[in-house]
Amino acid sequence: MSDDLDDAVAQFLSDYNSAIKEYDKGYVDADATLSVIDAHIDELREARE
Q1: Which of 3, 17, 23, 39 is surrounded by the fewest CB atoms within 10 Å?
Q2: Domain count, the chain
């Protein structure tokens, strides 16, 4: 893996964990959490290309 992809994966995992923690604490609903995760997945896909 390239450094850019490694960085993108690390950032994705960090952002994913943050989104799940906020959901678990009741700060956001499921739809908002999925929207955030989807956006991060799009960024991860772009880094892969």
Answers
A1: 3
A2: 1
